Amino acid sequence: MVLKKIAAIGLSALMVATMVGCGSTGAAQTGAAAADTAVESGAEAAEAAADATAAEAPAAEEAAPAAEEAAAETPAAPAAGSGEVIDDGPGAGVHVFMFKSTGNSFGDLMYEGFSEYMHSIGEKTTYQSPAETTVAAQVQMLDELITQGVASITISTNGDSGYDQVFKKAKDAGIPIISIDSAASPEYRLTHVNQAETNDIGAYLVQAAVLIKLGIDYPGDGKMKDTLKTELANYSGDPIKLGVLSAGIDTPVQNGWIAAMEEELKDPIYSGKVDPTIDKKYGNDDLTESTTQAQAFVSEGKVDAIISPTTIGIVAAGQVLKSANSDIVLTGLGLPSEMQSFMPASSSDDAFSFVCPYMMLWDVIHLGAVAGGVQQAIKAGTFDGSDGSTFTMDAFRDYPATEYSGYTYSDGGTAVLAGTPYVFYKDNMAEWVNVL
Ligand code: RAM
Q1: Distance from residue 100's CA to the centre of ligand 1 (Å)
Q2: What's the rounded Cα separation, in Å, for the pair 297 and 279?
Q3: Nearest to 372 by CA among 56, 117, 106
């Protein structure tokens, strides 16, 4: 328990210290007026957290060795979700957290944050996800839960359609729906909890993939685009071809990121140097299917780099590329605990002797907690999810009480911005493998 707490403190203090966006390229790349609000509210949250860290000046420095120490002392500890996670089981008055499917640590970690926050304010929660990553399986579970009179639904969807009937049933029963990670239809959700700005995630993933293909170590926070500009200007080889190993073909969140990657590739710096089209394959967040798709990338031999924007896909691709001793490089969104065998672990490592020299994610536990904060405010009647409406979430672990505001999201509904992408690379992996 004590170790867990120390590790948790290290988590957000370190993230605040070295978030990749950090008001650099992140703000500049968000064109839409709607996104400005998002960046602002994200910046506010980061600022608030940074202030809290600054108030006790040595906190961040102390946290790093503490996390390392925790990692060193608990070699056999489960990497993630090892806290006391409470599941009250389904029933009337219980807040439901539904992920795309079971067996995915990303969903487990979000639930850990959701459950911990909700219990801290006296609410009951349950984690209900189907075994199969399909819309139909989620709909069937939702239908039963709504009949039981659950208090609220927080869902990461498997598709952008097919939920209308069951969502209407929830709405008619007065059960509020919000989405997290993968958005639900704006018509039925009150708001969406967005992990980090979509355009940033897409752009950073493309930048990382190309830099890695060019053999460039992670250049540091906010420096990827400028470094890439210089490197590509000097590049005269064949156009670099990117592949994406995604989750489901209809999964809203991954499709949003892929669209942002395609947008990034329109930047003239890539012209003639990186192929503007992406070769896409879908592993449905299933390890076996993702492995088959990764193998197809290897046998076809068309791509130079794979971006896998799913924690399941990136592990499958890591394994396949490593076993095949392939020249294809890898980056994407992954959990450090699951990517240890495919990534460097210390500054003295040669990052390029590993299939995935660097990758990204965000504070998944905090993300789940923010959804709890949204449901708390909805229940209290202080937040209705509309553009411009605000709520203050209580302090969570070492995050201070923070105000969030609804902003208009790309799908026409609203969202609340929870975090910022964070890069895992050889200099910080050791601190993270037992944390996330
Ligand atoms: C997977 C899920 C989720 C995604 C993360 C990064 O576990 O597909 O949707 O956001 O990875």
Answers
A1: 9
A2: 9
A3: 117
CATH 3.40.50.2300 spans which residues of the chain? 32-53+66-195+363-419, 198-219+231-358
Beta carbon of 338 within 6 Å of any ligand 1 atom: no
Architecture of the structural domain at 32-53+66-195+363-419: 3-Layer(aba) Sandwich (3.40)
**Helix ranges restricted to H, 265-353:** 287-300, 311-324, 336-339
Closest CA to 3 of 54, 52, 68, 59: 68
Other C-beta atoms closer than 10 Å to the C-beta of 85 total 17
Q: Is the CB of 310 under 6 A from ligand 1?
A: yes
From the CA of 104, how far away is ligand 1's center (Å)? 8
Which band of pLDDT confidence, cut at 50, 70 and 90, is reported for residue 15?
Answer: low
Counting from 1 in the atom list of ligand 1, the atom nearest the Cα of 253 is 9
Q: How far is the CA of 273 from the centre of ligand 1 (A)?
A: 29
Better-scored residue on pLDDT, 13 or 435: 435
For range 377-393, the mean pLDDT: 97
Question: Could you tell me the distance, in angstroms and rounded to a whole number, from the CA of residue 314 to the centre of ligand 1?
Answer: 10
Is residue 80 within 6 Å of ligand 1 at its C-beta?
Answer: no
The H or E element spanning position 168 is: helix 164-172
CA distance 208 to 221: 12
Residue nearest to atom 6 of ligand 1 (CA): 310
Centre of ligand 1 to C-alpha 410, Å, is: 19
Burial class (CB in 10 A: 0-12, 13-18, 19+), 44: middle
Spacing, Cα 142 to ligand 1 middle (Å): 20
Q: Please give the CATH architecture assigned to the domain spanning 198-219+231-358.
A: 3-Layer(aba) Sandwich (3.40)
CA distance 409 to 396: 25
The 10s digit of each residue's pLDDT in 215-272 is 999 999 999 999 999 999 999 999 999 999 999 999 999 999 999 999 999 999 999 9
